[in-house]
Model the fold of this input.
Amino acid sequence: MKKDINIKEVARKAGVSIATVSRVFNNSGTVKESTRKKIEAVIEETGYYPNVLARELAEKKTHLIGLIVHNMTGEGIPRTINGVNEVLEENQYNLLIACTNGNIESEMKHFEIFRSKRVEGILFATREFKEEHRDLIKKLPIPVVVLLQRTDQEQISYVAFDNYTFAKEATNKLISLGHKKIAFIGGPVTSVNANERQQGFMDALKENQLKVDNDLNRNGDFTIENGYCQMQEILSFNRDITAVIAVNDGMAIGAINCLQDHDIVVPEKVSVLGLDDTVLAKASRLKLSGVRYSYTDLGKKGAELILQQVESTEPFFEERLIPYTIYLRESVSSPTSE
Amino acid sequence: MKKDINIKEVARKAGVSIATVSRVFNNSGTVKESTRKKIEAVIEETGYYPNVLARELAEKKTHLIGLIVHNMTGEGIPRTINGVNEVLEENQYNLLIACTNGNIESEMKHFEIFRSKRVEGILFATREFKEEHRDLIKKLPIPVVVLLQRTDQEQISYVAFDNYTFAKEATNKLISLGHKKIAFIGGPVTSVNANERQQGFMDALKENQLKVDNDLNRNGDFTIENGYCQMQEILSFNRDITAVIAVNDGMAIGAINCLQDHDIVVPEKVSVLGLDDTVLAKASRLKLSGVRYSYTDLGKKGAELILQQVESTEPFFEERLIPYTIYLRESVSSPTSE
Done:
């Protein structure tokens, strides 16, 4: 491919020394404004640097924010990215995204890459926030905001959903409707958010003197198919449950499909609630009950927070939880039989 | 926030001139290997550059590929990204992603940003590939591969789905089953892929001497709700259609819901086919018929192609279409009444 022209040629064309060009490039030392202009003109003309970088040189800012995510599957992360993008654009910042599949080496590497590309701040979403993450982030000279996960007592800013609380509240709603035998289809044990929801469910039962039956408190993999299988397992243990909570819509729909295949009417015999509000909830004919929380808003709040930190001279920490609403639709009713 | 140390200090610590450091940085001119090592040591020690960049200096390569997408909504783009990531990782390349919402200024800007960040190649997905895109790409000194869209006669490489052909083939399948009155729910006129599918549908009708009725050939917005409304419109014009093709699963499910609300049995009275194979197809109890094509494979092929171009000394162009399979499930049958 065509070779880029190098700094030597830029210096020659501008009639200055390489050191001067590099001073302009690195914003180190002082350079006469006229000289800077001359060099930037060459930069423009030769396309040695694109305009963006020329602008950066003038402003001494890159106006770049990095976003590291652990995956792209599901609706959550893409919606979060849209929210982040929206706010950054309003503020004339640009976003670079990296997808790591959640392995820590890849995450470390991408923090490095973003640093080397001179981003001014980093938004970080990982499967499970670990000590290594904390230690790395504390060493970084640029601000980091963790998305979609609490970093409690880490003195690291985050924007997250209040998974524990809304799962507990949703469970209490079912209990207040009269449900006593409630099954739970959780996520993989590796999912922090799913675990928080499961904990909220279990604590709600305990606080209502209802026993947590491990056969009815399961861990699935978020898919419709697995929701179906988990429900089948639950039924094999106990057929007089009156409600099921699934940690996401996919498994809730799988559970409904399974119940219907066993001629168990939803919600008359068994109520179903998914701790989620995705497009899947709309796809199922039976209007699924669930919890509404906006990934887009989470992304926006995350972007606002990172920009505040980038612009603040003193580092500061802030924890933000995104509001939610629990809504009961066709798939939930009071138990008609015990 | 803590200020980075600048090139002057690096030069001082390494006991060399700024010009030498910048020569190493820019791979311009020659630098004694021992000197390069000394400078890289300082780089390591001071953290002036993260290791990544130090490695880049040694290798004279950034091992970075840029991906520009126009949105993150739906399953397609995220799956494509996963495919791209997989192949790049296998080849020790890293991916930086930018999301533009499809406006051309933002796209141009991100090409610039990626250039300034020294990516070695760019993968590009846009809503509609225009002349401005072609002109920009032809000026770039690095290779570009367009994803999810043909760039015909542009001499620009692409990896895309064969929308026109599979839509035509799917329509012919319905016709061969005996369907003569077939409605079509297309996408927004701004969607090139949706338009190609609509064209394939219309050409299939024409080639079978079936008339294209504009009332039954509509443009929706990809949502379940809109699929429902489009179907209602179609029924208001004509109740003796025997099949409906929707350009995506969401609108196909909306159409099924609408038909069922009008007590029109699927598929006995009306067959429904979505030119798609998303998680939504699994969510609907009635197994939806459709077309299977892998966004992940498309992403992989795109990554392979850009790496070949990055590594080739001569620019070259290649056009790749991703294979597909049409599958008929519960939602499609022969018409039982005409």
